[in-house]
């Protein structure tokens, strides 16, 4: 967008986790490809990447309380189905699932984007309430605890498997607002997923902002290319007091 969005009523921000604050390192495709190779199956990483994207996006979460309801066991079942869908050739899918589940529970399997720590510090100094709201499971607490840039935010996590609903369900966003102690109209959700992080938040009464690190140019929603630009869209004087 050519103009900076004005967040004159915003007093709190919910940040998505994966793709917004952290990313897997090595990539998901590389890790899945290596897991298949250990079972004697050679796959092209790009093919694995495409399969993962398809299964991850198409997966319907349906826990005991309906569509988008979840808990820890639902998340394990969901990821088991994804592994089987992405690596149908492997002879021991349960072994691969266990291996991959454990891999992505380790902090060393993830890294923060370089703009994360400076942005969180700057926004906190402005007096903005912050939390991390993620469609993850309990493993995220260990991941965040083990990343120096995020360790101090471990008590500011709102995780779908603990809330009972995944984004974009309105119940998730209500839980995030309750965690911040703010009404939806004073909360901004920032993330890289248009539906889960932004449109879902808007439907729930929050504001939404796309973090488009790839600069793909989404035109119908407010967006920034990095978290530095997000910080620049706020000022200490404008928070909760109207536009500058």
Short description:
The protein has 244 residues and is of the alpha/beta class. The protein has helices at 28-37, 45-58, 72-86, 93-103, 116-125, 139-145, 160-163, 170-180, 194-203, 227-232; strands at residues 12-15, 22-24, 62-63, 66-67, 110-112, 129-134, 157-159, 187-191, 207-211, 223-224.
Report on this structure.
The protein is globular and about 55 Å long. The protein has 244 residues and is of the alpha/beta class. It has 2 domains: 12-21 and 113-232, 3-Layer(aba) Sandwich (Rossmann fold); 27-108, Haloacid dehalogenase-like hydrolase (DNA polymerase, domain 1, Orthogonal Bundle), CATH 1.10.150. Helix 1 (28-37) packs across helix 2 (45-58) and helix 2 runs antiparallel to helix 3 (72-86). The strands form 3 sheets. Strands 7-6-1-8-9-10 form a 6-stranded parallel β-sheet, with helices on both faces. A two-stranded antiparallel ribbon has the order 2-5. The protein has 10 helices and 10 strands.
